[in-house]
Amino acid sequence: MLFVARVSDQGAGYYLDDLGDELRRVAPEHAAADGRWIGRGTEGLGLAGAVDGPAMRALLCACHPRTGYTITPTQRRTVAAFDLTFTAPKRVSLLLSLGDKALTSEVLTAHHEAVHAAVGHLERRAWAVRRGSGDERAPIATSGVVAASFTHCLSRAGDPHVHTHVVAANLAHGVDGRWSALDSRGLFAHARATGALYDAHLRAEITDRLGLSWSWGERRGWDVAGADPVLVAAFSNRSAEIRQELAARGTSSTRSRHVAWATTRDPKDREATGADVAANWTRRASVAPRWRIDRVSRSPSVGQRVDEYRFQAAIEACPPSGVCRRDVVAAWSEAVAHGARVSEIEGASDHWVPGDKGSVGVAESRHAPGACVPAQHLIRALGPRPVAADSQPVWQRAAAAIDHYRQRWGVEHDTRLLGADRDHLAGLSHRRLADHLEVSRTVREALVSLGGEARARLEHDGLALERR
């Protein structure tokens, strides 16, 4: 999940005061990962490694972190930075409470990999500045994000809560060589897709590292499967506080929830040691069923397919004006149960919304939903689309062959792929029979290339097309 908030030039203290504190208590070996510069844009400013307070405060005031000179005018700036908070699913955070240091290390490493991958997507697609005037004013690409990352792993109620604040300065170096404030429209437009990419990348990392499986919850999305609800509730004190406040107020709106969150937001407990945190978690776990983490020897993410129904539902929720590439990226990310790397999802999406590779910010063209949602007869014939980017052309070629055949010969029957069953092949003309066999061979080769369920036979067109 990704949440974007605006930060004032006085907001640096919140992040700098907490440097490494939570990680030192929960995972000392990862404490050095807190307070690090992140983003390609930091390279041109000479920023690398650990964050230092003066440099960060200078950036929030739109000044060069080393020389102190003003980079961009501040008279019209109302936002100094953007806090991009990447939050792991509840049950992923819950893994930290099991007392296994190796497991904790794997979870935090996977989380950091996912954050870096998601920030890379923002740099390529969302980070833009505007140039020109009037109707000619348009977004252009930048050299990258200028940001500092701060990883926390505790909620204010002491629950396991893995999240990283990426504090991105509201300034960017355009490809035209000028510094200016960020065109934040692109950031907010791509927030959903970036959050979904983070989630998908995290699922892929944890699946491959630990072999865990995932389940879908209508209100929580994808999360690690197998945790008993009683155990989850034992480590959800912060959520319980907010729900109790909402019940007392008798409201449930989004604004009321934010008010309840702020009202119950107690100061952090900085006195608790690592031993105190571990003892607290052990006590809570003792009153709930134990969660047995079963690891599999082979990653279930290998050869996985897209959940076409979930993908279609996400696309149908888009505006009626059409879908952008970022909508397809978000839908694809949400439709992959065991996750996929950001590069894989971006590559796959490019095959379904071509022509937008160079666009940045809000400058993405809109496409008809049907261009990226396959027809049901294609899904029945070829199975759901593969997740891997390099397998998309194989699926698309077979789908195009089927549709061209159906169009040429006026086939409208939904259950018979090519419009004739085994008993009626002899009645086809020589030209159509030859075309029928050619398309059948194309489909068979695609199924063999894509893999799939063993010996799943397709007899819609009278031929035994087998997925091997």
How would you explain this protein's 3D organization?
The chain is an alpha+beta fold and 468 residues long. It folds into two domains: 2-285, no CATH class; 390-468, no CATH class. It contains 17 helices and 13 strands. It has helices at residues 12-16, 21-26, 53-60, 90-94, 101-125, 184-189, 191-210, 229-234, 237-249, 254-263, 274-285, 308-316, 325-334, 342-352, 376-382, 392-408, 430-450, and strands at 2-7, 36-38, 81-87, 128-131, 138-141, 147-154, 160-169, 172-173, 179-180, 214-217, 221-224, 456-458, 465-467. The protein has a five-stranded antiparallel β-sheet. It has a two-stranded antiparallel sheet with strand order 4-5. Strands 8-9 form a two-stranded antiparallel sheet. β10 (214-217) and β11 (221-224) form a beta hairpin. α13 crosses α14 (342-352). The two termini are 37 Å apart.
